[in-house]
C-alpha cells in the first residue's frame, strides 16, 4: 500500500523488486486490494493548475449531532478531506480555495452552520510531503489541450488504466498517449497514488499531529523518518506544522508522539484520531481548464 501511495502506476515488476518477491505474488495482492475496495488508485490534479492557491486545515467544534454539519460540508465543493475526530474538535477538513478571501468566506459559512461552536483555521504555507500534492507544477511550460484533459479525467477515475485503454478512449496512438501522460506527471500537473479505505480496525488508523515549534526542521526530519507519515505541511495559524501518520497499533502511535515530544524544538504536540473519514476525494472537475482552453482557441 505504501509503495502504491507513492506511485500508483508502479508496475508489478517494480513492486516485486522493491518488496523482494515475485511478480505473480504482487499482482495477486494488488488485484485483491483493488477488487475489495481496500484501496482506490486515482490521479489528483495539482490545485495550482486548477487555480486553487489557498489551502487550509479546518478543525470544527460541535455542540450536538454532527450529521447535519457533515451533510452541509459534504455538499461543499472545497473540502477534499473530511473526517470525524477525537479530542476537543469533532471534525477536521482540508479546504482548497482560489484566494485567502474566498477561504475566509467558506469558513464563515461553516461557522454559521447550526451546532457549530467554533472553527479553527490553519493555512498551509508549504506542503513538505503528500501523496496527493506533489511539487509545484511547472506552469511556465504548461500547455494543455483537450486530449490532456480527457486523459486527466480518465486517470482521475482509474489511475492504473493502461496506456492502450486510454489511447483507445481518447483517440490517440499508444506512443502519443504514453508521452502525454508522462509529461503531465513529470510536470507535476497531476500525481497518481493509492487512497486507502480506513475500516473500523486497529490495522488502519490515521492520527493527526499539530505541532508548535521554535523551528520546524528538527520535527520534519523526525517525521520524514516515520514509515507511516502520509502528510507533512508547514503552516501558520494555531500550529506551524501539521502531519498525518498512518499506524498499525496504539503502541506505534505512542512511540511517534513520544518521540516528537522529546525534541528540543517542539513546544507542544496535539493529537487527534481520524475516527471516521467521511470524504477523501482528490478528483476535481476540470471545467475551469476546459473554459480556459476554449477561450484561448477563440482568441
TrEMBL record:
Keywords, in A-Z order: DNA-binding, Transcription, Transcription regulation
GO CC list: cytosol
Lineage, opening ranks: Bacteria, Bacillati, Actinomycetota, Actinomycetes, Micrococcales
Protein name as annotated: DNA-binding transcriptional regulator, Lrp family
Domain HTH asnC-type intervals: 1-53, 144-212
GO molecular function: sequence-specific DNA binding
Biological process terms in GO annotation: response to amino acid
Domain of life: Bacteria
Organism per entry: Crystallibacter crystallopoietes
Amino acid at each position: 500500500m505504501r509503495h502504491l501511495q507513492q506511485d500508483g502506476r508502479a508496475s508489478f515488476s517494480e513492486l516485486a523488486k522493491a518488496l523482494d518477491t515475485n511478480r505473480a505474488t504482487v499482482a495477486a495482492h494488488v488485484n485483491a486490494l483493488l477488487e475489495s475496495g481496500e484501496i482506490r488508485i486515482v490521479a489528483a490534479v495539482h490545485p495550482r493548475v486548477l487555480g486553487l492557491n489557498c489551502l487550509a486545515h479546518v478543525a470544527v467544534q460541535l455542540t450536538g449531532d454532527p450529521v447535519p454539519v457533515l451533510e452541509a460540508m459534504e455538499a461543499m465543493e472545497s473540502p477534499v478531506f473530511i473526517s470525524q475526530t477525537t479530542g476537543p474538535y469533532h471534525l477536521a477538513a482540508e479546504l482548497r480555495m482560489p484566494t485567502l478571501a474566498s477561504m475566509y468566506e467558506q469558513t464563515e459559512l461553516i461557522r454559521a452552520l447550526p451546532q457549530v461552536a467554533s472553527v479553527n483555521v490553519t493555512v498551509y504555507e508549504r506542503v513538505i510531503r503528500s501523496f496527493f500534492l506533489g511539487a509545484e507544477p511547472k506552469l511556465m511550460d504548461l500547455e494543455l489541450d483537450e486530449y490532456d484533459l480527457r486523459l486527466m479525467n480518465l486517470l482521475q477515475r482509474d489511475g492504473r488504466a493502461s496506456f492502450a485503454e486510454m489511447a483507445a478512449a481518447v483517440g490517440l496512438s499508444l506512443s502519443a498517449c504514453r508521452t502525454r501522460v508522462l509529461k503531465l506527471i513529470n510536470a507535476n500537473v497531476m500525481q497518481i497514488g493509492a487512497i486507502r479505505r480506513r475500516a473500523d480496525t486497529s490495522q488502519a488508523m490515521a492520527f493527526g499531529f499539530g505541532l508548535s515549534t521554535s523551528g520546524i526542521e528538527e520535527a520534519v526530519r523526525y517525521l520524514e523518518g516515520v514509515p507511516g507519515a502520509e502528510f507533512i505541511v508547514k503552516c501558520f495559524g494555531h500550529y506551524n506544522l501539521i502531519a498525518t501518520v498512518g499506524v498499525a497499533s496504539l503502541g506505534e502511535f505512542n512511540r511517534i508522539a513520544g518521540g516528537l515530544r522529546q525534541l528540543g524544538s517542539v513546544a507542544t504536540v496535539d493529537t487527534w484520531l481520524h475516527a471516521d473519514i467521511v470524504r477523501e476525494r482528490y478528483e476535481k472537475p476540470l471545467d475551469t481548464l476546459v473554459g480556459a482552453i476554449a477561450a484561448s482557441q477563440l482568441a
